[in-house]
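User: Working on a comparison across species. This one is DHS-like NAD/FAD-binding domain-containing protein from Basidiobolus meristosporus CBS 931.73. Can you predict its structure so I can line it up against the others?
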Amino acid sequence: MKSVTLNNLSESLETLTLTRDLLHRCKRCIVITGAGISVASGIPDFRSADGLFELLKHKYPKAIMSGRDLFDATLFKDPVSTQLFFHFMGEFKDVVGKAKYTRTHRFLKELDQKGKLLRCYTQNIDCLEKQAGLETDFDVSNKLFTRAVQLHGSMEYVVCTICHAQYRFTEKYQQQFKEGTAPPCPNCRELGIIRDIVGKRSKATGFLRPSIVLYNEHHPQGDHIGQLSAFDIRRNPDLLIIMGTSLKVSGIKKLVKEMAGRVHESKIGKVIYINRVPPTASEWGNIIDYHLMGDVDSAIDLLESDLKLALDDIAPPKVESPIVSIPVLSPTGAEKISPATSKVSAKTPSKCSKKQTTKAARQPLKTVNTNTTKTTAAKKHSPKKEKTKEEYVIVSRRMSPRQSSKMNSIPKIIIRKREVAVDCSSKSHEMLYFW
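Assistant: Here's the predicted structure for DHS-like NAD/FAD-binding domain-containing protein from Basidiobolus meristosporus CBS 931.73:
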């Protein structure tokens, strides 16, 4: 694993260039994200010094020992922890509701629009992927429908603890959560009323809670998520990007290792990890190829802006070489004739005929030695006098009869740049013809 710090561009430029090229060449990319990609939107992450776990620990110092305790499934066994959980969820809904998707979320959508994104797997519950335009709902009949899989649920819905009926997380439910109480499930109440009418024994009424997955709790759509991940692995991904997660949760660690193993089977397959904190080298050293240590949004900006990441696959505009007129020296080098000159010295080489010009223009790439080769273009165009270091061979790529009549015996040619290369540094005067 090669790790670079984004704050030091001079040292990280090579690695950033490599990751840029990987993003440009990849055709089937899988992205796994964590809370770090939403920090710029105002939502704290979980495990950093100023993250959610530390905030909860300081807010409820007497009620919980760790911030993680408020996200464990066992909290419902304690009335105090349950009340704190609902109160926090009501306040957290305000934070999520005000958040806007970040540069990284927009980057994910761009990958999807270009057909490079197989799927995004996110641990976040803020629904910013959906806000950016990625579909998060499940369609069992269509494995390609879901573009972003919410591994830990979302704050968009509330779910009953008994019948598992889902409802929109409305302001009505939010207000009840803020008061530390759980609203009763409407579906369970209706079923209870019907049972009373028909004379059946009543059943317990469930309560609503945010539709998120807690620690030590199974995802209600776990089987379908497993089918999607197995399907994506069979699609032979050639790039895995992991962003904004510390890779501490066992489930996400298993998913990353499975995806990375498949990616490395590709000849160009690589794994890129972007996060503020480096991963454990002993566990991830042979799995992650490149680690960009720093802010996720800053890394995306560097890859796309400063290094001009070509995600759009737009070829650079073609710039036509300007037409230039090459001045010609006389064999003795005594006279230089400009394009505007109308008089030519008697020492000027004789004008090429149209037949000679056409023949020279059709010659393939070759090297001509003006001192030794008897059949060279130099022999045809140069006067039979003593040779000097400043002797030139004039070659015209194409010349119509009308152009020839306008030349007025001036030995100049019109060519495009880089079509003729002349090397007069040695005595042999090598000429390279590029057609």
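For your comparison, note: Residues 193 and 202 are 8 Å apart (CA to CA).

User: Helpful, thanks.
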